[in-house]
Amino acid sequence: MNIRIAALGLAIAGLAVAGCDTASTVVSPPKPPVTSAAAQPATARAQPTAPATATRSASARPGAGHPGKPGGCDPALWRHVYHAYRLHVISACRTVTGTVEDVRQEPDGDTHILLKPDPQYAGLVNAGNIEREHGDLVLEPVCAGYVSQADAVTACHGFTSGVRGVSAGDRIRVTGSYVLDADHGWMEIHPVSRITVLSYQPVSVPSSAQPSPPAAPAPAPAPAPPTHAAPAGCYPKTSSGNCYEPGEFCSRAEHGETGVAGDGKTITCTDVNGYWRWQG
């Protein structure tokens, strides 16, 4: 009997020990939350890379979005240049500053402006400008006035220049195509795309010119050239209807042609060191 009681006691003690092991095994599951909590900071640390990418894209935008230069040339104006072959393009678009010395309207509808270029642009004129335009650069806004020249009517039909007018003494900025006028042998901005008046500087010529109108008899010889009675036999004529003189440039269409100058002498369009000129 005592032996059975002792055996039963041992069995109960064994079950108690097993119960303790089971309890310790059940408590172990809380460990996983510790592992997931440690993973979260790693994810949080990765987030700052996004602003860096945004910063790079933001800094890239200014470089990709530079606008073109304002105040460029209008190529559509070339449709309104009559006999465009006479203009040899040196620079498709050029901007020059200077002072207006003279303004006159031409029969072809263009305005003929003489510009004394600022010193940095003095090299834009050639011998033709120096000899026949007082060293000034010629500016030609096209179709700016009434067209009385027959061969220029078509080019200006339905179109009037939007280039603003100027007066002698105005200091301006002009933009347009820089060309050699082969009809006359001088350099021009033709066609003019735009003119901006920077300031007005009165010059002595206009002020002295105001008293001149009363003395119109003296200028009368100047208008005499329009009386083409004497040089009526000259041929060919420039696009402006004027007679050619020896030394002036001739156009490509006139290469090798013989004609008569304004003084009645025979002239021939001849190659002179690569430049075609009327020679007597």
Walk me through the structure.
This protein has 280 residues and is of the alpha+beta class. Among the domains are: 75-209, OB fold (Dihydrolipoamide Acetyltransferase, E2P); 228-279, no CATH class. Helix content is 26%, strand content 25%. It is built from 6 helices and 8 strands. The chain has helices spanning 2-27, 31-46, 49-64, 127-132, 153-156, 204-209, and strands at 87-105, 111-117, 137-139, 170-181, 186-200, 258-260, 266-272, 275-279. The strands form 2 sheets. A 5-stranded mixed beta barrel has the order 1-2-3-5-4. A 3-stranded antiparallel β-sheet has the order 6-7-8, with no helix packed on it. The longest helix is centred in the N-terminal third of the chain and has 26 residues, at 2-27. The chain is globular and about 45 Å long. It starts with a helix and ends with a strand.
Secondary structure blueprint with pairings:
Elements: H1 2-27, H2 31-46, H3 49-64, E1 87-105, E2 111-117, H4 127-132, E3 137-139, H5 153-156, E4 170-181, E5 186-200, H6 204-209, E6 258-260, E7 266-272, E8 275-279
Parallel strand pairs: 3-5
Antiparallel strand pairs: 1-2, 1-4, 2-3, 4-5, 6-7, 7-8
